[in-house]
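Q: Two folds, back to back.
A: First:
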Amino acid sequence: MSEIDLRHLRSFLAVARQRSITGAGAALHLSQQAVSTHVRQLERSLGVALLVRTSRGVLLTAAGEELAAGGATVVDDVARLAARVRAAASAQTGTLRLACCPAATTLFAVDVADALEAAVPGLRVTLKGAQSPKQERDLLNDGAADAAFMWLPVGDPGLHTRVVRTDPRAVVVSTRHPLADRNTLTLADLADEPVLCPDVLVSPEDERFWLADPRPDGRPAPRGRSVPTVEDCLLEVGRGRGIWFAPQPLHALLPAGNVRWIEVTDGEPFDLAVVWTDSAPQPVIARLIAEVRAVVEGGRQFHEAAASTAQAGAQP
């Protein structure tokens, strides 16, 4: 069977809607002869009769009814595909506004922005600093940012997410805490410790995840004070007023003070994700995800190599 010409299909669909070749021509701003020619060429291409012409207009054959039922979807799909192609082309000369909370992404956000601009000619990536996950979410929902880096869950079903890194869960304790000299801990070790919660999270679901609530045995997590910021949380931990769960990489970015970071071996890890809205340029988002993963993987290999070199140097 020969390929269907979309011009011919559009003419036939107009005839099917109008039940008139004349009416279809008026709707399409084509002559009656042009519409008739298109329909005949379509019938020849398919090898079937689509119309029965009568003195009152036209009737659809069974084959015509089938084509009318499915043809509109085909035309719509092609139109949407064309729109996506044009959006991809326009995105190459546009701007991607990327929100990032320095505590989460300082180690790679600049590298990702540089790599993305190098990979997509004409694209400009702007980094918009956010002080908390709440502010990142607000920037996305207000249309001030196209995408963001956030730890899951984000608590908003209207946002799309793709995990780009998984981080171990750590607990932050005071250096005076009885468990501060341990190299690892379990949630059972911390069962009675009140967990502090900075007021920066985006939803109750998000808060429960950060608190590790409930615990593996089903008991609720003991809740400590709610504090305004992460920095306040660290101060309270340093004074022995509770503990805090956080992704391990934050250890390199937040002031240590009088606290110690210890891995929680049975704690659920944190997934760092690229988060974006429906209005974000989808082809650029796909490239962003690829570049983030490449930068993260490169950083992981670098740190593994550095650790291996340090270990070899320490051997006699």
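A: Second:
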Amino acid sequence: MPKETAVYTHGHHESVLRSHTWRTAANSAAYLLGSLEPHMRVLDIGCGPGTITADLAALVPRGHVTGVDHAPGILDRARATAAGRGLENVDFAVADVHALEYPDDTFCVVHAHQVLQHVGDPVQALREMHRVVKPGGLVAVRDSDYAAMTWFPQVPGMDDWLGLYRRVARANGGEPDAGRRLKSWALAAGLADVTASSSTWCYSSAGERAWWSGLWAERTVASAYADLATGGGHATTEQLSAVAAAWREWGGREDGWFSVLHGEILCRKPA
């Protein structure tokens, strides 16, 4: 089976983790929660620092959740998250979504949040997710769609940010406009019972604007993404500084508003 060929564009800089640790099952997996039952065994792919994983474990108290990530270093943070909440029905491991080391028909639910946009072969990833889910179980996937992100006001430099990010992500082997493609990828992977939906994150209050603009301004100049942008010849350090300044200007606007669109799919494996 093919192994992962894409590079994780964001890395795990502190500015990235501020975003990841904000995520909960409620704000990032609401489309799935009505399908969970207390006894279920869940695989959470791309678990990162484990905040969604821990929420899922709390929602299946008689079941079990396994969180996996391609980056070994982040798993200590995930374990600490679960331990801090006193959860005993959760464990963590390193895994490649293209070639999962689990038997067929193992899990009741296989969940992936913001994963397929970063992998080298999303169709193969979905085949693997479908393989390890039990008959009657669910594959649940949610990914943002960068080209569909929208904001106001149109601060000069923000369009430069979007174009730059999409270039860097694609040069790394990913697909930043994954949200709109999830249903198509699922059908290409042979998944037949596919329900597609969408939802958004929206940032507009003073606190939300400061948080969202601040983490992107910092990420643009000080993270693995910044290194990939300059190292790949996509931008100079001066251009990155200008993009960061645009983010700060937008964040300081009282009328500022930003919406992130996500595509979602729930795929039921035939019983």
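Q: And?
A: The chain has a mean pLDDT of 94.
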